[in-house]
Amino acid sequence: MPPLLLSxxxxxxxxxxxxxxxxxxxxxxxxxxxxxxxxxAPYHASFDRRMALAGIRPHHxxxxxxxxxxxxxxxxxxxxxxxxxxxxxAAGEEGSDASAFVDGLLGVVVDHGLRPESADExxxxxxxxxxxxxxxxxxxxEWPDGRPKQGHVQEAAREVRYQKLLDICIKQQIxxxxxxxxxxxxxxxxSNQSWVEDPTNNSMMYARNRIRASLRNLSAExxxxxxxxxxxxxxxxARTCVDGTWSMIAKKSVSILEYGYAVIDLEILDxxxxxxxxxxxxxxxxxxxxxxxxxxxRGRSARLLLDYIRTIPCKAxxxxxxxxxxxxxxxxxxxxxxxxxxxxxxSSSAEISYKCSYEEQxxxxxxxxxxxxxxxxQSNQFIQNQSNxxxxxxxxSIDILNKAKxxxxxxxxxxxxxxxxxxDEQSKFIAKEHKDxxxxxxxTKFPDCNVLSLCPGETCHxxxxxxxxxxxxxDVNEICLHENKEYMSxxxxxxxxxxLEVRHMVDTDWLFLAEVCNIRSMEENLxxxxxxxxxxxxxxxxxxxxxxxxxxxxxxxxxxxxxAAARRTLPVLTNxxxxxxxxxxxxxxxxxxxxxxAVFYPRVPLGGGYSSYL
Length: 614
Known about the structure:
The chain has 614 residues and is α+β, with helices and mostly antiparallel strands. The chain has helices at residues 41-53, 70-91, 118-131, 153-172, 186-190, 207-218, 224-253, 266-269, 276-291, 299-309, 342-347, 368-384, 397-406, 412-442, 476-484, 507-517, 522-527, 542-560, 564-567, and strands spanning 5-8, 22-26, 62-65, 105-111, 135-140, 176-180, 254-256, 262-265, 318-320, 323-327, 335-340, 354-355, 452-454, 459-462, 466-470, 500-504, 571-574, 580-583, 588-589, 596-600, 610-612.
């Protein structure tokens, strides 16, 4: 039974505040027997308490990710009842709601399209959600590069699922997204709700299914199940404390820049006096946020990162977890630059760049800041009321299990079985990881640059990091021809189909900008016989080239303020011939008629704003 999680990011950059989203995992405690309708009151009370602790109120606009399984259907039941109860209380009546659907609650069913029957299942789930009085819509996934390869299906499906869920939240201006996990189906049974069982949940190919099956087999053994629940509760409490600690430190020690990179102040962080668990979470969230690569840091990578950040002053560079780390320019090693690794960008799947369903960047949801503030206050108060928080200084899962035994949270039998499960799954994980590495070596490891096509009026999310919007008129070529007549530059011409291609910046791009800045008119060259013949020269179209030159000069001024390693992750738009048309993050446009914008707008927010496991 995974813990309840509420995570969002806070950032000093106003651009980043636009992309805050709440991810809320609701865990419903349960026993082994069926629960009749009359016994659901404790579940509703627990749900109400947890929402309050998270700073979420019934009047907030909320989306619920509904898979159709008992977990998400139960969450839908709880969320709908919670909002209805608040509505009746506000109206001063006990009768039914006047509207057909619960106000401010939207169910979202994601059809992954990976099984022939998935579309029918999605429609069935949508109808059932609507039947309980919750408005619902279906988001369908597309796989332009074909089905994900074996062994990575669940990971790829999860990435696309969150992409769809967050896109809908932005489009609908919904500030809270609820997703659910719990151990069984009591709430659905008590509410007379049926569910759809995904056949992949029974496949022993996946670790979570094997662990679930093992736990079900052990649940009848003495005090095993109650011990596991106590252990989970203690881990939640420790995680809440750790998250609160590192997130407060992050606010003081980390700066997120609008060009897509972070700077860690080592003097403020003081990593030598920070325990391993807290520092590991701190670094993991920062690196995952910058790279948008949401895989946990394990083993050698985690140890390497801890050793690197504790070497002060910073003198070397490190590539790990999709990020490139080095000493920040002019900091004398007292600050560390964290930017996305270009090598990882080139070797990663193109699926993380995608077209958005909305035409332009939606305004921020005004209630988010208040939710953050209230959640933080409630979480801090909750932690302060706890006299003893276990596992905060534990260094490994074995350390946690042994500590839990010493504190009588679990007994000898439970300790033995959990150790066995851990050892068994770890050996399978190592074997699978080795097999995946061999499979990756057989394939092309570094494909062509991640290229995405963008047309007028479209919005795309490049590498899940930059939101690019094109508002250019459809007759851009005609405008350029009218202004420049026969002297129109070839780099001002978009593709014949009106589209541009998006890729990341390469070294020759800023050399191109420098060359454009050195454009000389014919008159200047005639008056200066020493002028280099290799420099670009203006013909009889000075107005067009003057604009091009001024745009390049302003872009270079901005580019000089961005560390070289971070420049390489900026998006660049070109025509099909490869000519640079626009570098929107730094304001370069080859033509004044183009209206392209790029904002650092990470798809998944930084978890450092607030995380709660209550």
